[in-house]
Design a protein that fits this description.
The structure holds 2 protein chains of 2 kinds.
Chain A (H helix, E strand, L loop, with lengths): L2 E5 L2 E3 L5 E8 L7 E7 L5 E7 L6 E3 L7 E6 L4 E6 L8 E8 L8 E2 L3 E5 L2
Parallel strand pairs in A: 2-11
Antiparallel strand pairs in A: 1-3, 3-8, 4-5, 4-9, 5-6, 7-8, 9-10, 9-11
Chain B lengths: L3 E4 L2 E4 L5 E7 L7 E6 L6 E5 L3 E2 L7 E6 L2 E6 L9 E6 L6 E2 L3 E5 L1
Parallel strand pairs in B: 2-11
Antiparallel strand pairs in B: 1-3, 3-8, 4-5, 4-9, 5-6, 7-8, 9-10, 9-11
Classes of the chains: A mainly beta, B mainly beta.
Chain lengths: 119, 107
């Protein structure tokens, strides 16, 4: 069974940094593209970043470009999101999501981890 | 950026009724459109991909249609478990974008 488990969320001050992790199991992680999608409290879904299976390509939403870095460790079946220069607008639940093939849709999601940026 | 506009924002219906949700794209996405269902406190769940294909385990009462810029998600007969928020998502162009969502609530 596919499982994606996010961790690393929490309360951080404006301008601070945080690193999110996503542990994958139940599938061959190294053969799938994976993504981060976020959802601000009471709001809709926003795509944040994607990375291809071999890390050849990394893509970012304009809202996070230059501040966030996506990475993965296929040996550890893990996905990461390094978030720097955080602002209140980054407050959200961050979901890790898998994309089947080269589809860039999201067939499995984790339960999410909450990031709160506040002084 | 491709903007997806979902309508209506809220749909108030009773169990057993038919629900028709709309998603309009600001430019053609071909058939590269997916639909998701989200319940409170849960992550989204993939329902439909490539505009009209049901994802694994999705009941037949859910169907998707359309191509280009106009898409619909139809729930033929609402079950109590179907009351949730529904989002469309395009994968034709970067950035990947979602619609603002349609909440299907119990009337």
């Amino acid at each position: 069974e596919v499982h994606l488990v996010e961790s690393g969320g929490g309360l951080v001050k404006p301008g601070g940094s945080l690193r999110l992790s996503c542990a994958a199991s139940g599938f061959t992680f190294s053969t799938y593209n994976v993504n981060w999608v976020r959802q601000a409290p009471g709001k809709g879904l926003e795509w944040v970043s994607s990375i291809t299976d071999s890390s050849d390509s990394r893509l970012y939403a304009d809202s996070v470009k230059g501040r966030f870095t996506i990475s993965r460790d296929n040996a550890k079946n893990s996905l990461y999101l390094q978030m720097n220069s955080l602002g209140a607008e980054d407050t959200a639940v961050y979901y890790c999501a898998r994309s089947p093939g080269s589809s860039w849709l999201f067939d499995y999601w984790g339960q999410g981890t909450l990031v709160t940026v506040s002084s | 950026e491709i903007v997806l506009t979902q309508s209506p924002a809220t749909l108030s219906l009773s169990p057993g009724e038919r629900a028709t949700l709309s998603c309009r794209a600001s430019q053609s996405v071909g058939s590269d459109l997916a639909w998701y269902q989200q319940k409170p406190g849960q992550p989204p769940r993939l329902l439909i991909y490539d505009a009209s294909n049901r994802a694994t385990g999705i009941p037949a009462r859910f169907s998707g249609g359309g191509s280009g810029t106009d898409f619909t998600l139809t729930i033929s007969s609402l079950e109590p478990d179907d009351f949730a928020v529904y989002y469309c998502q395009q994968r034709r162009n970067w950035p990947l974008t979602f619609g603002g969502g349609t909440k299907v609530e119990i009337q």
